[in-house]
Amino acid sequence: MPWWAKICAKLLLSRIPVSYSLFARLGAFRHGQMANVDYALEVFQDHLSRSGLSSLTGMTCLELGPGDSLTSALLAKGAGASQTFLVDAGSFAQVEVEVYRRQVSAMVAAGLDCPSIDGVQTSDEMLSQMNAQYLVDGLASLRNIPDNSVDFVWSQAVLEHVRVGEFDDTLVELHRVMKVGSVASHRVDLQDHLDHSLHNLRFSTEFWERDWWANSGFYTNRLRRAEILRRMGDAGFSIVEVCSDRFLNLPIPRNKMAPEFRDLDDEELGVRGFNVLLKKNGEAHEQAIG
Ligand SMILES: C[S@@+](CC[C@H](N)C(=O)[O-])C[C@H]1O[C@@H](n2cnc3c(N)ncnc32)[C@H](O)[C@@H]1O
Hints:
Blueprint: H1 3-13, H2 20-26, H3 37-50, E1 60-64, H4 71-78, E2 83-87, H5 97-109, H6 123-129, E3 132-135, H7 138-143, E4 150-156, H8 164-177, E5 178-189, H9 205-208, H10 211-214, H11 225-234, E6 237-246, H12 259-262, H13 266-269, E7 271-280, E8 288-289
Parallel strand pairs: 1-2, 1-4, 2-3, 4-5, 6-8
Antiparallel strand pairs: 5-7, 6-7
The structure holds S-adenosylmethionine.
The site of S-adenosylmethionine (SAM) has 23 residues, from helix 7 and helix 8.
């Protein structure tokens, strides 16, 4: 289906009054792939290793934007976390405990010390056994987490979805809740969420940010890497490391892009996505952008 047809379909589907869980089951809308335990494990272990952490023993952790699944609560507990916050902008995670029961054996096979949830009846009980909280009011939820309480933060394909008007405040809150010296690992996907391209840059900001458009299931804030890194610095973070991957060639011609993007240099427009490791008020770190 071409990108513009996907936009039309999402505009229509998002207006049908059906619950998100039904849409997700039909495959019409999904908030990522965390319901796939292999994907969740890979993402989690990648963020841990990028952060130089071999375990989370005794740590409090926070995942921003867990999407379709509460799996990260099990993963964090299995890695030794004492407490976990899962913060999303809506209640999208599967609640059937059976799904999670099936995931535990995969986690144990991967070497995590994940406790059995055989005796658990509901996802709330499961969360409580993991000492995890699933908070679904985005920025407002972050604001309820105490200062200097979190040892490790991670997110996968989330920061590009935070509405541009909430982006800085979200970073400020993430910085506030982290303990001094703690690290955060984020993967940011800068492709459009239509065709793994840059079709989203065709639209003017004024049009793209209208609520009826932005709430239709394909929104990304379209901030480019340099702008995101600048805002992370402004929020108080030290940028420890950035690893980027690039398009081979720009996927759409510049003259098809809105004026605010068309004149950005290739170095910026060519970035498909990047991983960034942040530290709260660490000592001076060399900034390595690759
Ligand atoms: C593409 S999904 C990624 C989900 C998951 N991390 C994964 O890798 O499968 C983006 C997620 O970001 C969440 N999100 C968007 N804005 C957010 C915000 N302001 N605060 C927290 N989560 C947000 C969405 O609700 C969604 O769950």
